[in-house]
């Protein structure tokens, strides 16, 4: 089938793009492809909120303050043109979303409520109780239904097709019957979400946040950027890695070590528990390393104490968090502190795009957590990623509508489709014996140990070698289920393939970058080195399937480099 | 230290490619306390049987992918503790796992939820904003916290379809609107920014709509987010009156319902269809009644007076007074 626009991914980023495009030109033929039903995308998991300098709560908040906080938060690796666009558009976007029915919590005067969030100098975070992402996603899905957007649910992206540097569309597998479909289009928007699930059990991410879009991009010759920057959220539940939102600290929760101290006073005396994520994660890691954590069979942890907030406040403002703790940890935060430790949470890196969301291939765009614009640089601020997906989702929607009117007939040849069929058939190889779950588990473990919160040359060298070895073993991975119907075994194996390719980028990038910046902390290079490393990392796949690392300058603006302290 | 135990999962499997009909596969696994049913299923898939087919994504109770029936009840696998289920097993330490009801099975525990999405579309489950398209994003709508409150609970819905699976009427009539779609409609109608209330309500009161619900409360009991769905059902019904849409079988039924409740505190359900539809209309109900009867869901002919009858009566009178005030 031929379309004007194909969007891969139906999270907040993909659906906003679809909505913007159809509203601008209802005659356009748009297909949205997603491996899960739209409302199941991981945007639903965002609890805390979304930033916009509406100045509803703090009247002195401004767009400039938001810009500065974001640049500083990014440890000066964010591109200032993109950050400026992000923050300028924020109030418009939030109002637009509100106008379209998003149920934001309210202040007494009827305006959108705002709360404090890590790394922000004002109360800037708009929210809907602790279900912000969920309600934003539902609202976008509702509006997409209203405008009759055509969804292809439970279709898995196999490849991005180009010819002569021009986009021709994508090829995808229908999970229901394993049939391969081509979606020819001059414009494709990749909105496939993050890749932090590669840390597996030490990750807050959904099972499918495996970086499929990034992996397909690499194979199509599209570079990735800043992949070594993975944010660890300070407060994952001890057993499952699931997240206790920053909202819990925003509402006044304390972090406590085994001496009963609020240890953040040592690391961020002013902001305390509300310091930026990377700082809080590292502080917890140091406490644990110094023997100030609590012991348990599921590993060491520290405590997040909400008990002093009282039952009423917890029930009213943090009901989902309370549920989460009871279901997954067996702890009621009203009665006792929550056992937490850092967990891989957000991927700053992604498909390399500019402020217009363009990749190096004409007609292929990328947005959302799977893209790197870059507005988050070395460290994303809480509440800025929902904003990122909305602002740049809309931007990509605008761009593709412009483009739709002036491009020719796209074409995906039969042999391109056959290549994908061969790839799938190859996965069913009879002599294959490696277990996907073992490789996956080992990948998570080596990344956690060697490319986690604290990194060294030795550990990273081992990490890179491990990933190479796992990629070799993956060539013999066994797909035991040979049914054509809803073959989730096949899908999990393909996802593992994506994770392995992206893990190589993460580990190689981390090994190359001999400095500490934002989420990337090298014990052997403990300070930021602007002279040698104030630049983006770029990752390309070679013809042999290896990953080559290079770099690219950061776009600066009116804010000069400064030390980052909180 | 942690409790460990061998547990049997009896999973209703069906692969239409090869199976003529669904059958139970048994998996014996040793698990430790504190594990969720989803983790157990994933363990089985990874270690025992790679063909076991189920959906999951967030593993955190927010995406709605993993709803299945566990020991006969529709719920989320990822928020259900195995140890809690052991208490409701018919056979000791044997947990029964089945796909959701009221949907076509695609394979094993995976069902086709497209009909549910089609109903969301049919009943216009979206806000039609009062802000004009060209003015979007210019300024916030004024919504007071007390105006937001009524839709707060309804916006918890994660479209997991547990209520859909449990609904008695959806089982009897596949075209029935279903509880979650009523909930959505209510959420949209109550939103002060929406302008499509009239149109939506008109759709709601047509055949297969809100008047077909029998107040069995199964959706309320099933809802994984504890949303008071019945409030939504009553709410949209009330709205049909407010909008003067009284000339449907359902609306007349509701009037009789009111009289009944005032009289006995509980509905004389067995004779209700006769009074609503008249003797001729009743004939149309026969196939439906037979279906319900076959499933053992025919209401008793002589209902008991409910103990809180007085309260019910006062409540009803209160409601009537209130609505008179409005006129
Ligand atoms: C627990 C948690 C809490 C968070 N809290 C906040 C917060 O409070 N504030 C904030 O700003 N941000 C928060 N974030 C981050 C934010 O939610 C995400 O960055 C953002 O939602 C990503 O949106 P997206 O549209 O890029 O991707 P997603 O919503 O992840 O959607 C990705 C889409 O791509 C599709 N897809 C992926 N691979 C394929 C494939 N191979 N084929 C077809 N389709 C595919 C998926 O089906 C899905 O529809 C949080 C994240 C997590 C994990
Ligand atoms: S109360 Fe109504 S909607 Fe709910 S399950 Fe029963 S019949 Fe269905
Ligand atoms: S109403 Fe409750 S049970 Fe029904 S789909 Fe929504 S969340 Fe699930
Ligand atoms: S896996 Fe998302 S709700 Fe259970």
Automatic annotation (TrEMBL), chain A:
<dbReference type="InterPro" id="IPR030664">
    <property type="entry name" value="SdhA/FrdA/AprA"/>
</dbReference>
<feature type="binding site">
    <location>
        <position position="212"/>
    </location>
    <ligand>
        <name>FAD</name>
    </ligand>
</feature>
<dbReference type="GO" id="GO:0050660">
    <property type="term" value="F:flavin adenine dinucleotide binding"/>
</dbReference>
<dbReference type="GO" id="GO:0009061">
    <property type="term" value="P:anaerobic respiration"/>
</dbReference>
<dbReference type="GO" id="GO:0005886">
    <property type="term" value="C:plasma membrane"/>
</dbReference>
<comment type="similarity">
    <text>Belongs to the FAD-dependent oxidoreductase 2 family. FRD/SDH subfamily.</text>
</comment>
<dbReference type="InterPro" id="IPR003953">
    <property type="entry name" value="FAD-dep_OxRdtase_2_FAD-bd"/>
</dbReference>
<keyword id="KW-0560">Oxidoreductase</keyword>
<dbReference type="InterPro" id="IPR003952">
    <property type="entry name" value="FRD_SDH_FAD_BS"/>
</dbReference>
<dbReference type="InterPro" id="IPR036188">
    <property type="entry name" value="FAD/NAD-bd_sf"/>
</dbReference>
<feature type="binding site">
    <location>
        <begin position="34"/>
        <end position="49"/>
    </location>
    <ligand>
        <name>FAD</name>
    </ligand>
</feature>
<keyword id="KW-0285">Flavoprotein</keyword>
<feature type="binding site">
    <location>
        <position position="380"/>
    </location>
    <ligand>
        <name>substrate</name>
    </ligand>
</feature>
<feature type="active site" description="Proton acceptor">
    <location>
        <position position="277"/>
    </location>
</feature>
<keyword id="KW-0472">Membrane</keyword>
<feature type="binding site">
    <location>
        <position position="233"/>
    </location>
    <ligand>
        <name>substrate</name>
    </ligand>
</feature>
<feature type="binding site">
    <location>
        <position position="345"/>
    </location>
    <ligand>
        <name>substrate</name>
    </ligand>
</feature>
<keyword id="KW-0813">Transport</keyword>
<feature type="binding site">
    <location>
        <begin position="385"/>
        <end position="386"/>
    </location>
    <ligand>
        <name>FAD</name>
    </ligand>
</feature>
<dbReference type="InterPro" id="IPR037099">
    <property type="entry name" value="Fum_R/Succ_DH_flav-like_C_sf"/>
</dbReference>
<dbReference type="GO" id="GO:0008177">
    <property type="term" value="F:succinate dehydrogenase (quinone) activity"/>
</dbReference>
<dbReference type="Pfam" id="PF02910">
    <property type="entry name" value="Succ_DH_flav_C"/>
</dbReference>
TrEMBL record, chain B:
<dbReference type="GO" id="GO:0051537">
    <property type="term" value="F:2 iron, 2 sulfur cluster binding"/>
</dbReference>
<keyword id="KW-0560">Oxidoreductase</keyword>
<dbReference type="InterPro" id="IPR025192">
    <property type="entry name" value="Succ_DH/fum_Rdtase_N"/>
</dbReference>
<dbReference type="InterPro" id="IPR001041">
    <property type="entry name" value="2Fe-2S_ferredoxin-type"/>
</dbReference>
<dbReference type="InterPro" id="IPR050573">
    <property type="entry name" value="SDH/FRD_Iron-Sulfur"/>
</dbReference>
<dbReference type="Pfam" id="PF13183">
    <property type="entry name" value="Fer4_8"/>
</dbReference>
<dbReference type="GO" id="GO:0051539">
    <property type="term" value="F:4 iron, 4 sulfur cluster binding"/>
</dbReference>
<dbReference type="InterPro" id="IPR006058">
    <property type="entry name" value="2Fe2S_fd_BS"/>
</dbReference>
<keyword id="KW-0408">Iron</keyword>
<dbReference type="GO" id="GO:0022904">
    <property type="term" value="P:respiratory electron transport chain"/>
</dbReference>
<dbReference type="InterPro" id="IPR012675">
    <property type="entry name" value="Beta-grasp_dom_sf"/>
</dbReference>
<feature type="domain" description="4Fe-4S ferredoxin-type">
    <location>
        <begin position="154"/>
        <end position="227"/>
    </location>
</feature>
<keyword id="KW-0411">Iron-sulfur</keyword>
<dbReference type="InterPro" id="IPR017896">
    <property type="entry name" value="4Fe4S_Fe-S-bd"/>
</dbReference>
<dbReference type="InterPro" id="IPR004489">
    <property type="entry name" value="Succ_DH/fum_Rdtase_Fe-S"/>
</dbReference>
<keyword id="KW-0479">Metal-binding</keyword>
<dbReference type="InterPro" id="IPR036010">
    <property type="entry name" value="2Fe-2S_ferredoxin-like_sf"/>
</dbReference>
<dbReference type="GO" id="GO:0006099">
    <property type="term" value="P:tricarboxylic acid cycle"/>
</dbReference>
<keyword id="KW-0001">2Fe-2S</keyword>
<comment type="pathway">
    <text>Carbohydrate metabolism; tricarboxylic acid cycle; fumarate from succinate (bacterial route): step 1/1.</text>
</comment>
<feature type="domain" description="Succinate dehydogenase/fumarate reductase N-terminal">
    <location>
        <begin position="9"/>
        <end position="117"/>
    </location>
</feature>
<dbReference type="GO" id="GO:0009055">
    <property type="term" value="F:electron transfer activity"/>
</dbReference>
